[in-house]
Amino acid sequence: MDKRKSSGISRLFQTDQLLCYDTRGLPIDCSGTGQDGETRGGKPWPKPRFIQAENTITDRMTGLCWLQNATPYEFPLSWPEAFEFIDEMNQNNQYGKSDWRLPRRDELYSLVSHARINPAIAGAAQFSNVFNGYYWSATPCVRHTDQAWCVELGGGRMVKGMTHRGCMVWPVRGRRADYGHPDERFEILDHGILDRKTGLSWMVRGDLSQGFVTWSDALALIDKINRQNHLGYDNWRLPNIRELSSLVDDTRHTPAMALPADLESINLFYWSATTSVYNPSYAWTLYTRDGYIGVGYKPNPEFSVWPVRTS
Prior knowledge:
The chain is 14% helix and 22% strand. By secondary structure, the chain is of the alpha+beta class.
């Protein structure tokens, strides 16, 4: 087999998006679209994904143990108050444990579903008291020191919030994420940037579209380079939002990307192949300046294209 056409295996997990949508937000046949619902980049979820115990639910995809009650404190807290609440839980050995913590931004985001809304979380039926609003992560925004990252669980956006404002708190236990140093994680090759952590290969230049394009044009551009066997490969695709967000380094900004320092042509905004089911005329997008995960209106030419392939 020609290794340049081998699909390989990603170490990231898939999103749960199975449907495809046109620019008006209407469901369509996935065949030949190049959308997330067709390409299904990543590993399948473990079955079952969630294991329930008394008061807790363990996510077999991440190894994290979440409190089954998603709102142990029924009112929003400021970011400092959220840490104080967690400290109090640990001092009181709440639920028989003393190692509760606020989740990192990527850990909280791991619960987001791209097939559900209100709440936009996976395994929603197994959790109780999920608030369809904002939850604090433990991750500060390094570009704005008076802000921290939170996830909006009505639709699934990753946004910045002023630390004095109120968000809900969802405690977690378990291993912390390990990003690895960029110089050890990435290898720049003539045909792409190999990410050893995820098994994905990104184009060396992150500006294939040479400017901003619509979502339909982004998908059409991927189809075009595959027909041309660009750089010897025909399995390029528009990354899903999980794949794009895997590049975020929350200790950096401008760009907030875990990439080699000498990499050129990182644009500010990128399309993903994942539709926002909250409003399917929008698709999920990444803002690289600080790592914001939001949405873009599909017909507007406001985002760039960065192809990926599974090594």
